[in-house]
Amino acid sequence: MRWWPALAIVAACGEAGVTLRPVYDLPVDDPDAVASGIDAVELAVARAGSAQDLASVTFTPGAAAELGGVPFADDLVVHLTGRLGGSDVGYGRTCAFALTADDEPPTPHLWFARNVKFANVDVTPRLRRGGQAVTAGDGSALLLGGGDRVAAMVAERFDPGTGALTDAVPLLDRTQAMAVPLGSGAAGRVAVFGGVDGGGVGVGSIELIRLDRGAASVEVDPLGVLDRVEATATALTDGRAVVIGGRRPGGPPVGDIDVIADAAGAVEVRPARAVLAHPRAGHTATRLGDDVGAPVLVAGGVDETGAAIAAAELWKPLSGDLANPTQFDRPMVVPRSRHLARLMPDGSVLILGGVDALGAPVSTIERYTIDAGFVAVGDLPTGAGLVDATATPLPDGRILVVGGRPAPGAPAVATAVIARLDVIDGSVDVVATDRLAVPRAGHQATLLCDGTVLVSGGADAVVRAERYNPPATGRR
């Protein structure tokens, strides 16, 4: 089922316009995710982030459609909604694109699938376990790192604007590397650092991946000071990033806090004024909002004896100091490591999964707030992944928890659940959603610029990527 309607985009001044033809990408070999049987399709154009359509047209599948009255702009989005009996059963949108009178019109891609479904995508990334997916400044996803040397030596790029997966750049020979965006907007870069080389020695060099109109390049800065594993890398509101804790290969956890900055094209790494009161590895570090100088919550992890750390710490980017531990006394309900932490729309943080001091999986969900500290707010259901899972914020503010293992060493699962915060009473609802096509653990997941979630790697063999299509809410 494919539609190729022509959109007549006319300049606001009434001059002759140009024709835009979006490309509609559909699930592959996944009939349950295809929005079939629909009886009406609404096609609309709006500005990114706006709830108001500039123009829209409703037509029968297979019929030609023409849409006029849309101005030239640099932030347009095409929406496509499929309906059956008056109910919305399928949805998709493009990433934002520019349309001008002087340039050739783009052919933006739109992922159209049944609502709240995972679907196979016609791309096959490398098999990565333990790698990362980072959304770059141009809206594409970079797939990198992991525990396999062959896969880790190449960064792959998935572009939702074209639907293509390409090898972006070769990387240094290292595993367990970490990555974090630097800068802001399309001009930003992605810093890759840490990990170990083939001999098990820590790698301190930083690689900077720059994307420019779809092309990628990499620069290597041999600073040699971030030769760690099991650290955290958190993007800050001013375009810098902070690296907290971790360990040098074979060594105990460290309390180092270092700030990475992109200074006029050159990378700088500077130690913060403070060091952690509790050196830790396998922890989380979550920025508490988008305000300038928003603090970073450091939670969990293990100490030099391997014991889980209960005490949380709060790092302040503007001063470089930690909150006074006598005033910031916020122990976790269940001390844990290898967990996930995600910021919620109200500024609180959800703590999900991980293992406790005895290495047992933790199902208890904790919620952190400035006022109350850590409070238990529910449990992940039986069968959900508690380690090696991913947790991805959706456009509507909920958290999509995908795959993983119910316990360390257990087989991977294909389950997925959604955690939703009730902002009235602070409770968290956890409900099941569509299952993955294949079980995955140590996989990668990231929210794309069109509001879908790309899931790759972590399976027992090289398999197609999957894409989750959330509800239309919040995807303007």
List the helices and strands and how they pair.
Layout (H helix, E strand, L loop, with lengths): L5 E4 L8 E3 L2 E3 L14 E8 L5 E7 L6 E2 L5 E12 L2 E7 L3 E3 L9 E3 L1 E2 L2 E4 L11 E4 L5 E4 L4 H4 L1 E6 L4 E7 L7 E5 L6 E5 L12 E7 L2 E7 L10 E4 L5 E4 L12 E7 L2 E6 L12 E4 L8 E4 L13 E4 L4 E2 L17 E4 L5 E4 L11 E6 L3 E7 L10 E4 L5 E4 L13 E6 L6 E5 L11 E4 L5 E4 L9 E4 L7
Parallel strand pairs: 1-6, 3-10
Antiparallel strand pairs: 1-2, 4-5, 4-7, 7-8, 7-9, 8-11, 12-39, 13-14, 14-15, 15-16, 17-18, 18-19, 19-20, 21-22, 22-23, 23-24, 25-26, 26-27, 27-28, 29-30, 30-31, 31-32, 33-34, 34-35, 35-36, 37-38, 38-39
Would you write up a description of this structure?
The protein is mainly beta and 476 residues long. The protein has a domain at 6-115. Helices cover 1% and strands 40% of the residues. Strands 4, 5, 7, 8, 9 and 11 form a six-stranded antiparallel beta sheet that branches. A four-stranded antiparallel beta sheet has the order 12-39-38-37, with no helix packed on it. A hairpin with a 2-residue loop joins strand 23 (257-263) and strand 24. The two termini are 25 Å apart.
